[in-house]
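ZP: hey, is the flavin-adenine dinucleotide complex queued? I don't see it on the tracker
AM: it wasn't, my bad. submitting now with these inputs:
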Amino acid sequence: MKKYNTFLVKYFVVNVVLLCASVLIYHYYAESIIPTPSLYPYYDYIIVGGGTAGCVVGALLSEASNVNVLLIEAGDEFNILSKIPLTPTLIQRGSNDWSFTSTPQKFSSFGLKNKRQFIPRGKGLGGSGQLNYLLHDVGIPSDYDNWIKLGARGWYYSDLKPYFEKIFMLEKHSSDVGTKVIKKNARVHFKNKKAQAIEIVLSDNATHRIITRNEIIISCGSIKTPQLLMLSGIGPEHHLKEHNIEVVVNSESVGRNLHDHLNFPLYVSIDKPLSVTLSKMLAIKTLTDYLWSGKGYISSSAIAAIGRGPNSTSLTLFALGSADETILREIANTDSETFRAFFPLHHNSSQEGFVFLANCLQPESRGSITLLNADPHSSPIIDPNYLSINTDIECTIRAIRLAIEVISTKAFKDIGAVIQWPKLKTCQHLWTDDVPDVYLECIVRVGALTGHHSAGTCSMAGDTPVVDQYLQLVYL
Ligand SMILES: Cc1cc2nc3c(=O)[nH]c(=O)nc-3n(C[C@H](O)[C@H](O)[C@H](O)COP(=O)(O)OP(=O)(O)OC[C@H]3O[C@@H](n4cnc5c(N)ncnc54)[C@H](O)[C@@H]3O)c2cc1C
């Protein structure tokens, strides 16, 4: 009991110190978004959504001296937690997170509350890039080259390479010349099937129209972009009519083709002090190391390695030995029994170990984004339809078997790596020492979590593409 009280006091003191330091640092260093700039009636370009894509497009467009750009972002500024590499997870479910939840899933998520996945998405300048895990990769060339077969002319890896290089340069020399940023939730207004203006409600509570001379660029992410299009009259006709939305373009594929890959968490304990543990995270030294030198346990996202296996399999080594149960359970949306089965050593804050995230990079299951109602402030209905196609289960099982193979190597044996198989009531009767596929399928369907990489809802491919190879709406 005494040990527990000491831990709580230490926890409290660290949190107070962290909070005070955060407020001070934020006060002195945070760049502020222009709160309510005066607006012109016309802009050359209007960008809706100031996330990862919107900010890059805004910066590139504003390089031209004779162009003015308006960037509209629904969210507010991010707090200091988005700037410390290990802490963006703590932003989830806060005011800078859209905090979506999926519909109850039919083929997966059986261990989650109401079988719903919690789906965080960044809300504020920088978007989901402000609460993500900082992994950067331009992907493998063959993935892009496959897009050509689906109809995306001009998207060969070699076509895109110069732009990737430019983006990496932007990180070093970012400029916001000629760009205005405002915080609003916007809607697109069409005239004669041409996007002509955006409509926003300003502080006077009146709806204002701001007209574009050239283009409106919608970069609200894979969940909000189809919602905004449908609210603006672009989408499946019958669905828009259900919500009394005037149809501008009947575009059947808006919101279809949603896909994301699941992460299956496999906890591995080790007996060497190599990982980030809860005790290490909460130590005063960790905070002072970071504040003074930008180093230490919270200076990285704790992702120690990622590897790609054959046939679309992949592993991510998340070097977190122990973590706060309440926080992790909240963001994973799991009940207590499932959480404890997947993290059986959760009660020990000094436990060393890591989580192997096994996943299938190219899932075949497809879901959808549809409207709940015609209110732009409501969340859309998100149904990722995870694991509805059996090949995704087979592929995830292959990824788990790859993890077993890696753990059995000498390097991992030397650090005492032991897989802590989840002992779930619903799956335990399927367990045998040779870890059969039926058991793996059962634990994947219970405990796999969103991979945070939803995509495909405004597709360039298929019989009824939403956008063409220039990312312009088809049928206008
Ligand atoms: C928790 C998490 C971890 C991740 N980890 C990684 C990682 O390590 N590496 C990686 O490569 N990817 C990662 N991702 C994915 C990556 O962050 C996203 O793919 C990427 O940020 C998407 O960029 P985007 O511009 O399409 O959308 P976003 O960055 O989400 O931007 C959309 C913006 O539009 C705004 N918006 C929405 N609707 C409106 C409206 N009506 N009016 C005005 N503004 C609006 C939103 O507030 C938001 O700022 C992660 C994602 C999450 C959620």
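AM: back. The chain is about 30% helix and 20% strand.
ZP: great, adding it to the tracker
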